[in-house]
Structure formats: C-alpha cells, structure tokens
Amino acid sequence: MTRQDILTLLMSYHKLIEDFDYSLAVEWAMHCVEAGNTNVDILMLASFEKYPETLEIIPYLNRAVNVKEPSPENIDKSFYIAGALYCSNITQGKQICESMKKIDKLYERGLVPEFEALNLLSWAWIDFDFGEQNTPYYETTPERIEDDVKMEAQKFLDAVLKIDSPLHFE
User: Fold this and answer.
1) How far is CA 7 from CA 10, 40, 72, 79, 112, in A?
2) Do 155 and 88 form a contact (C-beta atoms < 8 A)?
3) Inter-axis angle of helices 23-34 and 54-65, to 10 degrees?
C-alpha cells in the first residue's frame, strides 16, 4: 500500500480525526491531479497553499471524497488509518519525531492500543535526549532506537495490512 493509497483512505475520515492536518488533503489532491483526475473539487484542493485554512478546504474535500456521516465502526477505523500514515512516515524516515508525537496522542487517548511499543519507545527516546543511557521503558540503546522505532512501525503496518487481520482496513 502506497502513501497515496493511505491518503486516499484517510481523506474519507478527515472529519473524525482531531487536529487533522489538512495539508495532507492538498498533497493527496496534487497526486490525484498528476494521475489525471480532473474533478473540479480535486483541482481546487490541489490549488491551495501547503497549509490551508480549515474552513476553506473542508467543503471541497467533502465533495471530492463524498463524505457521509460517520458510523462508530468508521470512527475506530479512522484512527488506524491515521496510525498507518504516521507509521508509513516513520518507516520511510520522514517526520519521525512528529509522527511519534501523533502516535503517542492516539495511544494515550486509548484509541489505538497496538501502539504500546511505539509509545514506550517514545518515552525511551525522551530519556536518551536527556542524557540517560538506560531506559526502563523498552530494551534499546541510543544507537539503536531509531531502527527499533522503524521496526515497530513496520510491525503495525504489517498487522493492519494483513487481509485476515481484525485491524485490516482496505
């Protein structure tokens, strides 16, 4: 599953995610246009600046993805899709710290319990940043922590993308 595939899924759930980053909608729309999509709402989304005003962009995004009222099942699914995007960023070495903070929010709110290992690694990374050499949170080292974070992010992606997984969302 590519980043664009995850973004496509995520756009349908944007209303359900607190602090949704609408610059992702602009990125998604730009890829759609590059792929030949000429829907007027997608063209409008692609024309926005990188950090658009939320109230301006929402009507175009809603029409572009034909957003319906959320069901409880979709609310849970939205958190896993957002988590997959953050994990995808991590495995690609992009925005690791920012993605870890967003994963921590999902975990600490009890929304995605499967992020426990990544949450523990986040605490360990903080300890290392403050000069600690050992951490009670996760067995890792300052030299290995980034690789461990990427490994745990990949485990999450493998779990949610596995067809027979209860976490599967495609």
Assistant:
1) 5, 19, 21, 13, 19
2) no
3) 40
Distances (CA, A) of 104 to 98, 108, 120: 10, 6, 9
CA atoms in the 13 A half-sphere facing the CB of 157 = 19
What are the residue ranges of helices labelled H in the chain? 3-11, 23-34, 40-47, 54-65, 72-91, 96-108, 116-129, 145-161
What pTM did the predictor assign? 0.71
Q: pLDDT tens per residue, the chain (170 residues)?
A: 677 888 888 888 787 777 788 888 999 999 999 999 889 999 999 999 877 888 899 999 989 987 555 566 666 777 888 888 899 889 999 889 999 998 998 888 777 888 989 999 999 988 888 888 777 777 888 899 999 999 999 999 888 876 554 444 55
The Cα–Cα gap between 115 and 51 comes to: 28
Q: Which two tokens stand for residue 34?
A: 């590059």
Tokens of 125: 């990374």
First to last CA, the chain: 9
